[in-house]
Amino acid sequence: MHHFRSTAQLTKSSMNTEQQVTLTQFIIEQQRRLPDASGAFTLLLNNIATACKQISHRVNRGALIGVLGSAESENVQGEVQKKLDIITHDIMVNALNWGGQLAGMASEEVDEPIDIPSQYALGNYLVLFDPLDGSSNIDINLTVGSIFSILRYPKTVAPETEDYLRPGHEQVCAGFVLYGPSTLLILTTGDGVNGFTLDPDIGEFILTHRNIRIPEKYNEFAINMSNQRFWEPPVKRYVDECVQGSEGPRGEYFNMRWIASLVAEVYRILTRGGVFLYPYDYKDPSKPGRLRLMYEANPMAFIVEQAGGACSTGRERILDIKPSSIHQRVPLVLGDKNEVERIVDYHHQYDQTQA
Ligand code: MN
Ligand code: MN
To answer: Which one of 111, 115, 233, 306 is separated from 105 by 20 to 30 angstroms, measured CA to CA?
Structure first.
């Protein structure tokens, strides 16, 4: 039998005055435990958080401030840009270029890395970001997000493009912000994953999800089924077996989800478990995958692994890939460790038959 809470009890808990931990406080406390950390890192994260608050505000106002719809231009990927792709890119650049913590940054939306204007000091970090992930969802009012990846940069001169091309396991921090029913920042600095909810009344991200771990054994997969006829045999095999449910070799029912917004998919997996696939397919064999290594796969892989999951192309651990170009695309399989391992194993078995 359910015991409904009385209004008096609800009021009491909503008036909870327990000490809240802000993002800044959390980062400073984490920094104290790292021997070589500096205040620059806290400032950098603060500037990223400020940019994301501004983006959250714009996304939230939507049509009221005329930010929806197409910008009638194309980005470097040949994709039609939304107005908000451009606005959010500018917000990120303007929030990050002046602080003296960065030596440079790279954005999904522009061809070449962005230099720090000469009037500002150069710092010891590089940031790579997707300012608005899932932007095709913006006009239908579904969840979108921002994704970022931070690398250390030891040199004292301005970086070249190749300075950005570091494997994902060298990231010192990765995160994403979901602009959903609430605005949520998910963060790792290599010591687990924590979530912070934006309190719009005080304008601060508050620690609300401590030490996020991917729940195991949740039978749910996410894939764009419309590409089924282009999939490789190992991906077909995995999905076939899931769809056969309790009558198939898995002997269990599997549920399917597809939001077409990486940030929302990854957050669902962090919360509930399961697996997400955007695999290699034969639709356009010249394209190695759909998602970008530097702005999407690497930061998500760092987060997912830190939450106890796994992340692979199907054949290689994402975090071990040595990038060849800044806008490189990769196949992506991430989530529940056992499921990802099974999918990797199916690829391996298939490749054996082809050898
Ligand atoms: Mn994206
Ligand atoms: Mn984007």
So the answer is: 306
